[in-house]
Specification:
Elements lengths: L4 E4 L8 E3 L14 E4 L11 H17 L3 E5 L15 H10 E6 L2 E3 L8 H6 L6 E5 L3 H5 L3 E7 L4 E8 L2 E6 L7 H17 L22 H29 L9 H15 L16 E4 L6 E8 L6 H16 L5 E7 L17 H10 L2 E4 H13 L4 H13 L2 E2 L7
Parallel strand pairs: 1-2, 1-3, 3-4, 4-10, 12-13, 13-14, 14-15
Antiparallel strand pairs: 5-7, 6-8, 8-9, 9-10, 11-12
Length: about 425
């Protein structure tokens, strides 16, 4: 049987999965073998009572008349998930009354659980980031045909499967940071297991003693190939992380604030060979602290992203930090990192002169370095292009400490 799966608002792709773009769209859920949805998207664009009733009726038909399966993420928004009513009012009432927000990645699977959700947890091992749990006991869920497949670190269910007639309604913990095709493969595995009935049948104890000629001839090869598959998946994940970490440097050209610009600025300085602690590792309130092990020099930096000039406010803040440290007997270089006119292209004329006259005069008076992130990005690219060139890194570190006023990357250094 070729499966037909309908998907609403889940970032997943597969040859067997088709999108439902709007709740009001003239597509029937019951025409499919399975329905996948994210409850966080159920209220997007507004939903009329007529459309909601129609969709609940279609899901009931899918479950009860076709023996199909529904996969939904368990989220805090599940408390408003009106599609749960299609499973049964008792199930929906229990779930909505007991769902609680709470994010985490540490959880335990229940090895004795019988059903189809185990494949999802297995395929996405290490990539689950649950955002909610149920404050419901095993007996409460079991009384409604529910099976717990995974619990968080305190034992609350985060993955539950309900049997509804011949169908199944599964509440899944959402994954994090995985490609859409991998999520699609995990969901298709669950749906295939449901229709194959392979995970539903409890074999009698004596069945384990029955042998079939040739059934185990491929066991070793299966084991080896499974290990290779897991190793390749792990390698791919590592490569993706490396790629994403490198692409984060583009944020130097348009980012601002503590969430985007400051972390990537610190990462850039580390690339040059500076020791750069995270803010929680030092006592001050400044954005960046640099230590050059070779020279023993230190610097404090403030980072500012702006749609206009980098003005005197951040300069004054940096000056306060430098003077406060001087009173305590600690001398530092001041570096003002600016991403002015950040929404303009890096080669725009405004970005070549982004520090205000007040900031430039103050920097000259106190021997501060003014560091545009456009120039910082050029230096980052040069180091990434020649990662073994230690002389280049030393040159960049020394020039940052030696520069008063505007710093420009000089590839000939």
């Amino acid at each position: 049987m070729k499966l037909n799966i309908l998907n609403y608002r889940v970032n997943t792709t597969h040859d067997l999965i088709s999108p439902l773009n709007q709740i009001a769209e003239l597509v029937s859920i019951s025409d499919y073998h399975a329905f996948v949805y994210d409850p966080a998207g159920l209220h997007i664009g507004g939903v009329t009572a007529v459309d909601a009733d129609r969709r609940k009726s279609e899901v009931r038909d899918l479950l009860s008349k076709k023996g199909g399966i529904v996969l939904a993420f368990l989220r805090p928004e599940t408390v408003q998930d009106w599609l749960l009513d299609a499973a049964s009012t008792t199930i929906s009432n229990l779930v909505r009354m007991t769902v609680r927000p709470g994010a985490g990645s540490q959880f335990k699977t229940v090895p004795s659980a019988k059903g189809v959700m185990g494949g999802y947890l297995q395929v996405l091992k290490g990539k689950i980031q649950f955002t909610a749990h149920l404050e419901a006991s095993e007996s409460q869920l079991r009384g409604l045909g529910g099976t717990i497949f995974a619990v968080d670190s305190v034992g609350d269910p985060i993955a539950v499967e309900f049997v509804v007639g011949e169908g199944r309604f599964c509440l899944l913990p959402p994954p994090t940071n995985i490609p859409a095709d991998r999520l699609g493969a995990a969901m298709v595995k669950v749906i295939r297991d449901h229709f194959n009935k392979s995970a539903q049948m409890d074999a009698p104890s004596w069945a384990n003693e029955i042998t079939v000629p040739g059934a185990n001839v491929h066991d070793q090869q299966i084991k080896e190939l499974t290990k290779q598959t897991e190793d390749l998946a792990a390698q791919i994940d590592v490569l993706r992380v490396d790629r994403e970490n490198l692409l984060k440097y583009v944020g130097l050209l348009f980012g601002y604030g503590k969430a985007v610009l400051e972390p990537v600025v610190r990462s850039a300085f580390r690339l040059f060979g500076f020791t750069v602690p995270e803010p929680e590792e030092y006592q001050g309130e400044w954005d960046v602290e640099l230590r050059d092990a070779g020279s023993g020099s230190t610097a404090l930096g403030e980072v500012e992203g702006s749609e206009g000039f980098i003005d005197v406010d951040k300069y004054r803040q940096l000056l306060d930090y430098i003077e406060g440290e001087t009173l305590e007997g600690r001398e530092h270089k001041g570096i003002l990192v600016g991403n002015g006119f950040r929404l303009l292209a890096p080669d725009a004329s405004e970005r070549q002169d982004q520090f205000s006259e007040h900031a430039k005069r103050g920097a000259a008076r106190n021997e501060f370095c003014l560091l545009p992130t456009t120039e910082l990005f050029k230096a980052v690219c040069a180091v990434l292009d020649a990662p073994e060139d230690q002389a280049l890194k030393v040159s960049i570190r020394e020039s940052l400490f030696a520069t008063t006023g505007l710093w420009k990357f000089d590839p000939s250094r």
